[in-house]
Amino acid sequence: MIDFLFPRPRIVIEAVGPDEADALADIHAEAFSRSWSADDFAALSGDRRVFSLGLRRHSTFWPPRLVGFVLVRVAADEAEILSIAVHGASRGRGHGRLLMDEALRRLYRERVESCFLEVDRDNRTAVGLYESLGFETVGERKSYYRRDEGPAGAALVMRLKLR
């Protein structure tokens, strides 16, 4: 009865473009201490080798809201996850996995062989997600992530073989 009166929000993953650069920058700034600007997102969205997928919550009572995104660059038979972020209030609901699953399906359809990403070694939630998707650590970049306080953090370089 409650679902009838208050239906659950519908989740939709779709392409996002340069016209949503401000929203992407807002989500990124909320997720990372070193954020990218709307101009950065607009420039990346204009690159023909880059695709962006956004996750929107469609609610009965409010307009659709962009709550997460993944940004991917494809070069020949390899791809790189440039960034993925989910708004803080929407974390812990599997939205990051949904975004990654859809991005990886698209890469597979495009016959991409391998997908790479970099992740802060100390971000256990993200590392766990990527490992659960089959990514393996293939390298480490020491002192890669600058921190406001304390020493710089290491980046794990991870790869998923899609074929």
From TrEMBL:
Swiss-Prot/TrEMBL keywords:
Acyltransferase, Cytoplasm, Transferase
InterPro entries for the chain: AcTrfase_RimI/Ard1, Acyl_CoA_acyltransferase, GNAT_dom, YpeA/RimI_acetyltransf
A GO molecular function held by the record = N-acetyltransferase activity
* Pfam families recorded: Acetyltransf_1
Q: What CDD domains does UniProt report for this protein, alphabetically? A: NAT_SF
The domain of life for this entry's organism is Bacteria
Question: Where in this chain does the record put each N-acetyltransferase domain?
Answer: 11-163
Cross-referenced NCBIfam families: rimI (TIGR01575)
| UniProt record similarity statement | Belongs to the acetyltransferase family. RimI subfamily.
Q: What is this protein called?
A: Ribosomal-protein-alanine N-acetyltransferase
Organism encoding this protein: Bauldia litoralis
